[in-house]
Amino acid sequence: MEETFNAEMERRLLELRKEILESIAAEDEDFRAMINAMGIKDLGDVASDDITSKKMEALNLHAANRLKSVEAALTRLKNDRYGVCLQCGKKIPEERLRAIPYAVLCVECKSIEEGTKRRSW
Ligand SMILES: [Zn+2]
Questions:
Q1: What spacing in Å lies between the alpha carbon of 49 and ligand 1's midpoint?
Q2: Are 97 and 45 in the same domain?
Q3: pLDDT per residue over 37-52, tens digit each?
Q4: Average pLDDT over residues 54-69
């Protein structure tokens, strides 16, 4: 049976999540200690509740933000809201999601958002 698009994206998001956690663990001794203290052997098994705690604040900010985006995308998959632009409600093209599985904005809204950010600097 062929994998559905959402199933494919879920698998990729879970892989991405594990990669991010591994990269944090590689850099961050405190994070490793926390994982060890929780008795977690496989980083893929880390529950989001465990890491969205205050410990997150201490983590590498860039990685933490990516992780949040991935978590949000996984939640949206569960709620059947995946692939819908947060801003305008249009469907995000599959090729964009394949490139960035945790994208929440369509290309148009994303470029508007980035434009706004640049102006507000
Ligand atoms: Zn949009």
A1: 29
A2: no
A3: 888 877 777 766 666 5
A4: 74
